[in-house]
């Protein structure tokens, strides 16, 4: 864990008064395996005098946060009704075959985690998926290998 960097982000938060969600996102992006470990939430709780239970409540409510370790790249496939009607099932199956992965799992090499997202807010562009912060619209199974290959490290 990058303790000094987390401390710096907390200091900046105190100075700027940015939203707590922004702080938690910045911290999660710093932590290897894209999650919010218990010791980090306890540090934030102590430094900001926010009950740790409130931090856990926030982190567990929003699907973009994780309390457990994840892969370097997070694949989120939208499961809203418009996306379900388009390519959702095919995309999940194709990702599973390509990466040997099911929803909620991380690849053995720690590169990818597959998550279902209840809505990515782009219903008119279904099917939609995200890899990290990159959004892909009107995704088809034939596009999937090329998309995922851009994230594979040699």
Automatic annotation (TrEMBL):
InterPro entries given in the database record: NADP_DH_HndA-like, NuoE-like, NuoE_dom, NuoE_N, Thioredoxin-like_sf
Cofactor(s) for this UniProt protein: [2Fe-2S] cluster
Keyword Oxidoreductase: yes
A Pfam short name: 2Fe-2S_thioredx
Family label: Belongs to the complex I 24 kDa subunit family.
CDD domains: TRX_Fd_NuoE (cd03064)
Top-level taxon of origin: Bacteria
Cofactor mode of binding and number, as noted: Binds 1 [2Fe-2S] cluster.
SUPFAM superfamilies on file: Thioredoxin-like
The entry's keywords: 2Fe-2S, Iron, Iron-sulfur, Metal-binding, Oxidoreductase
Originating gene: hndA_2
Positions of [2Fe-2S] cluster binding: 78, 83, 119, 123
Entry EC no(s): 1.12.1.3
UniProt name for this protein: NADP-reducing hydrogenase subunit HndA
GO molecular function: 2 iron, 2 sulfur cluster binding; hydrogen dehydrogenase (NADP+) activity; metal ion binding
